Amino acid sequence: MSRIAYVNGxxxxxxxxxxxxxxxxxxxxxxxxxxxxxxxxxxxxxxxxMARLQRSLDRLAMARPLTExxxxxxxxxxxxxxxxxDGVVYVQVSRGQMRRDFPFPPDGTPASLVVTAxxxxxxxxxxxxxxxxxxVTMPDERWRHVDIKSxxxxxxxxxxxxxxEQGAQEAWLVDAKGYVTEGASSTAWIVTRDGVxxxxxxxxxxxPGVTRSVVLDLVAKQGLRFEERAFTVDExxxxxxxxxxxxxxxxxxxxxxxxxxVGNGAPGLTASGLRRDYHSQAEFx
Length: 285
Ligand code: PDD
Hints:
Elements: E1 4-7, E2 10-13, H1 24-28, E3 31-39, E4 42-43, H2 46-59, H3 68-81, E5 87-94, E6 112-119, H4 122-131, H5 154-165, E7 172-174, E8 180-183, E9 187-191, E10 197-199, H6 210-221, E11 226-228, H7 233-238, E12 241-246, E13 250-254, E14 256-257, E15 260-261, H8 269-281
Parallel strand pairs: 10-11
Antiparallel strand pairs: 1-2, 1-6, 3-4, 3-5, 5-6, 7-8, 9-10, 9-12, 12-13, 14-15
Helix pairs in contact: 6-8
The structure holds N-(5'-phosphopyridoxyl)-D-alanine.
């Protein structure tokens, strides 16, 4: 019997089921899910699972793809079509599909809904329960590996959306000690009043930007004064210039931070110069 998945209004064999490559779940992990136990073909603790799903949706300002009642029907129909008696039903809701861009899609973009169901091997689970299981301890590192260019970008999406709602292009993320780490999708830089370029060192708490590394080569070549160190938000407020770097915008001057003008409020000479010269240093293949 082929397994059947519910995907956005249709029941489809697993082999053919899929969401768009533009789905926010695929692009940004911008999605939430629930797993509900099924015993004797009946849902276990459905009310609590659906309450948690609603909470997750609310926390992320994500629309419901279906009413709770309709979702209950879809879950049961998926269980029925897969002849699940004892197992689990899986529900994933994403913020829908849109050309890849960090901020939320326009209002009215339908959320995506995927529902699958499968039987458990009850004998195996019971045998395991009879013996008990082992655990090992390890540091809780969910998700601190920001030096890896992973698509676990939901926090970045939320930061970028908040920035856009405040009329800003980018969010600068700040660590617990008040130091800027990086942009939601870019590397953060300032130029101090004394004309020293400053950006955070690569110590695992920022993504090692490719554009950053090319700009550093350019800085060395042009003999500009440079310090690789963390800088605080206050230092950024007081900076002569600020800018961000990323593959999608090379060097982009920042003229306002938290509503305050940076320097004289116009793109600075250093940032503009680096922007002008960037592609003379970059490699073309
Ligand atoms: N973002 N930091 C983060 C969190 C990023 O997502 C990016 C790039 C950078 C800059 O890296 P690079 O210079 O290699 O592009 C720093 C890309 C552009 C994006 O997600 O669209």
